[in-house]
Amino acid sequence: MSNTLSDFALRHLAKIVESSDDAIVSKDLNGVIQSWNAAAERMFGYTAEEAIGKSIRMIIPADRQGEEDFILVQLRAGRAVQGYETVRQRKDGSLIPISLTVSPLRDTNGAIIGASKTARDISERKQGDLAARRLAALIESSDDAIVSKDLNGIVTSWNRAAERMFGYAASEIIGRSIRTIIPDDLQTEEDMVLGRIRAGVSVEHYETRRRRRDGSEILISLTVSPIIDETGTVVGASKIARDVTDRARLRALAAEQAMVSQKLSEVGSLVASSLDRSTVVQKVTEAATALTGAEFGAFFSNVHDPRTGDAYRLHTLSGAPKERFARLPHPRVTALLAPTFHGQGIVRLDDVTRDPRYGQNPPYHGMPEGHLPVRSYLAVPVTGASGDVLGGLFFGHSRPGVFTAIHEQLATGVAGWASLALENARLYTEAREADRLKDEFLAVLSHELRTPLNAIVGYARLLRGNMLSGEKAARGLETLERNAAALTQIVEDVLDVSRIISGKIRLDVQPVEVPLVVHNAVATVQPAADAKAVRLQTIIDRRVGPVSGDPDRLQQVVWNLLANAVKFTPKHGRVQVRVERVNSHIDIVVSDTGVGIRPEFLPHVFERFRQADAGTTRRTGGLGLGLSIVRHIIEMHGGSVQAASDGEGKGATFRVRLPSMIVQPQDVREPREHPRTEKLAPLTGLGDLSGVRVLAVDDEEDALGLLRVVLETAGAEVVTMASPSEALTRVGSIAPDVLVVDLGMPEMDGFGFISEIRRADDASIRDIPAAALTAFARSDDRTRALKSGFEMHLSKPVDPGELVASVATLVRRSPKRR
Questions:
Q1: 8 A C-beta contact, residue 736 and residue 756
Q2: What does the alpha-carbon distance between residue 532 and residue 571 come to, in Å, rounded to a whole number?
Q3: Which of 25, 384, 597, 739 could staple 770 via S-S, CB 3.0–4.6 A?
């Protein structure tokens, strides 16, 4: 056979080279490319025409040029380079990992004339290796246990997380059965898992228990997948185990919380169904007893008895008849019960009989005879919105260790609902009581207003019809004046209450001689006492010094107390007023032998609108405001007022206590005389308003008529108008010296009217002095009237003499009169 290849063999070899998936290149000993197959074109991007005749170094990265020198040295020495892994550069500049095999080429004489190079693209292998390394790193760094086993359950791999989770080192467990970590009662799970794996079916997120090396158990979520070889045959399984102990605990806790919320919501709906206190508390006690699993539960309400100290009354009981407690004493603030009744916190005991506080309060050393058997004990305080303790919920069971933290939470939630329900019930009761008192007050007010109005209307019609003459006419006029004064006093009382509520009552503070105030008040009520043959006695302590206060308001207080005493004392009774010094205080004591005060009403005697006898059959009049006003005025003076009575028919005593002045005022030559609240003297004359022109504006015809009569009687020229708009139009032509304007009118009120007057361009109109005569008598109304442009504010009803004097004063201020 010839030593040279035949043409057929050469063509066959060329075909193999061209069809190879590996790049096959030949080069001379200078590295110049001699041949370049199709695979080389695909691998490096150069065509054969571009590569042949060029140096092989064109595909070698700059940082790897030394490799070519090394390969050429090996070739010249006749040594091949096999499986050399390196990187080459494509035409587009990208790099490609290759496995390089270089063999020397010899001529017919055996001399080395070049080399053949076979390059294989190992990108996928490199990527596979990288992926494998990454996968291995992930497995080792995973927080989940990743384990593999064969189809017999023998462990073949065991990562670090598995070591931490189950306590076995890889060297201890690999080669052993996975059943080592499966609890005895769950061994059948492994049969089920292997059965599914052999069938090529995965097991996903299966929650179960596994046993650690120390014998403890953990909850895991298990995912098992089949391992399949190149032929598609299942050869084993990979298992991922995640510790879900905390998650399971949190899930259980969430479920418990959801259950708690649901139960408390049910309790909320339950207690919202009623506003009756007893019904609400009974429902709460029964619901809480059921939720806590107690054999019995009870609610004890806080009751303060000033005679016996704190006491706690059994309000409701669940799980046992009330008769079981009927003969037992009320609970006391013992060491065990104090935290609950004082609102200091929750008490939960697995066994109350083992608590050091148990049975340490004589006369009982343990459970009182007949008491329900208690071992497990749970007590929760029920506090109101203001923090005061309304009572306590108590739960018991005859077995120890029954109540858990969840029961404690449930009981606390129920106590919150109980607090809300009790507050709602209290507010509802108070609202109903306030509504009742309001209706009662309106009825009383209607009665008190209509009574004097009845006399006023009756006598007015008789006098207008000339049906009374002489002494009867004089008595009728006196009745009219007296009842008008009564109506004025009613209005003043209502206004005083309004000022008190709004905090706008004012005091004119100065040194006040209390005996003088008392004498003036006694003089005012003396006629009423004489009419009933009531003996009015005054006792003054000579050591009494002055107090700091408002003489008018203090006289109002004493007058009110004396008037009440006379009103509620029957004929031939006795009323005594004493003024005495007690240490650093001055006491004013008003006592009577009258009808007295019922014990149940005594705590409410100073409340607004409260009257012990408020029905249609009541024996005395009044609005029930006087004593409320008294208390507020005295408290504004830094004092106090108290009421005492031994009961109905046994009289009453009111004690006002005021602080004495620390520094005595200097003596003055002329003794000061405090104003008196006495009956007005008969009107004998009016001032002179001759030559004075008055414009009166009021929408009420009767009010205008009275103004005209009074002012014309005093000699004034009076123009009256019912329309403020018309008055503004004609004021220039009328040219009044004084304006008298009502504040409350339709279309335009008095404030708007005076505002237009004060903005007038004509100074003779703009500067007309004006008085506001109105039924709006609050201090705010007076202040607003003066700020809006009026010089005076006169409250209805106004005394005719005061009206004339006020107009005369305004005339002197008029620019036309200067």
A1: no
A2: 5
A3: 739
